[in-house]
Specification:
The chain is an alpha+beta fold. It has 14 helices and 29 strands. It is found in: Mitochondrion matrix. Its cofactor is Mg(2+).
Amino acid sequence: MWRGLRAALGWLSRLGGGGVPPGAMEPAERAVVRCVPSEPKLSLQLVLPDGSARYMQRDQAEPLGRALARLATNAAKGRAKAGKKSKKPRAEDGEAGEAELPEVRLFSRDGRAVSEEVPNAAAWQDGAVLQVGAARYRVERNPPALTELRLPRSLLAGFPVCPKVSAEFAAPQHCLFRWYRERRPRGDGEGPAWEEEREPEGGERVFTPSNALVGLRLKLRCTPGDGTRRFGAPREVESSGPVEAGPGVCTFDARHLYTRKVCGRGSVRAVSYNILADAYAQTEFSRTVLYPYCAPYALEVDYRQNLLKKELAGYNADLICLQEVDKSVFADSLAPALDAFGLEGLFKIKEKQHEGLATFYRRDKFSLLSRHDITFSEALLSEPLHAELRDRLGRYPAVRDKVLQRSSVLQVSVLQSETDPSRKLCVANTHLYWHPKGGNIRLIQIAVALSHIKYVACDLYPNIPLIFCGDFNSTPSSGTYGFINTGGIAEDHEDWASNGEEERCNMPLSHPFKLQSACGEPAYTNYVGGFYGCLDYVFIDQNALEVEQVIPLPSHEEVTTHQALPSVSHPSDHIALVCDLKWK
């Protein structure tokens, strides 16, 4: 129903009810129509000369004539209301309550009147002209529009600022961006501390403020656009605080020297990284026990996201597999930022948790064919694929119950090369159970993972190469690592009794893949005050892929500059693994 249009349209009816030939003049006002096939109603927004707008909703299947009649009625009511308020009503107006209905018609782009029997969904086309009395409106159907525009709360000099841009009938890559900075105070002691006038600071979606902008706020003006060069109404947003000084040299700066460019068509740069979920970094236990050496501000999610976005952007990766990704961080920070750098993101949350896994792939190199994500506990319980393992585990109820209580998940994505459709990849990403005495639980989880991956990479898509990334919480000496690396594990392996004899669950396991750790077995990928060790890996299919280069990890001196990780110069307690792979 029309909301608040009566007074606004009163002036239209007073202009007279005569028709105006469609080609007589170009309409200055706009009639913005939003019509989505999946919704029962369309909305009509009349943008008035003073910039204000009035709205109406109508059924898409309703005949046009009924919508036009309602427009005429509301216009007449607006005129009558205006007449009652006037001290000297015009004689020709007659009684205020008997206002004459203005002529309301809709003309197609070629100037023909649209039949009143046509359904609304078909009648309101882009470029049509709506006539209400003597006023004329140009119809814009589903124009590009911004639904959200937001800047990060923390801005650091030298670190990319990636706004969150959500749009309808538009795409961020087709939007226009204009950045502005606040002017510095004039220094004469007069006037406001911050002047309203601003200077342009770049025209790209991602903006990296220089040291000269420290202490100044930023403003972004975004005009939504689509692939056909249509543009909608712009919107502006200001930063909540000023640009702050960056931390100086970071642990990843030297690594970026190896990844300045995206690797060639026949190669794939892969990253695996546990980025430390905010849900775990912002606990009292984390601040006082796990990371007491880390400055409190450096544990804040906004600060760490600045570092993380710069680090990931600088790797110019084709595939990025992340663990411990907060749901809100993915939606509000990582996905918008990496989208601006050409990467598409997929998210899988852990059951009853606020964090999960994220896989990103470069859009101009790969397209997504299918997703096959699972929760280990659900798959083990319900999938016929795991019936044999489920039966074996039934003999060890204590272990089975622990496995079923875990919320761990597996992300499996099948990608196809954009330049060579015959090349496909199965990309898996996981984060196994963390407990030091949970080796038997991890063995069950990885057995479920590899059986599921076999179904995808061997049965659904025969013989496609596998890249399996993750935080496996397993050192190179563990049963889990050995099982992945060799293809089998004996039923008497010591890890089956990792939590004591009461939870021993002896069983032989095997898998058909020939996998290797692309980055080898570094001394550590996780370095905190009380522990360091290699827990993260990028496993690759040796039959189809080989390692081109491994990006060196930070030196021990860099890692321990601030005692351990995370720190003011490193956003996580883990270190990213980065390697270039190529097809054999």
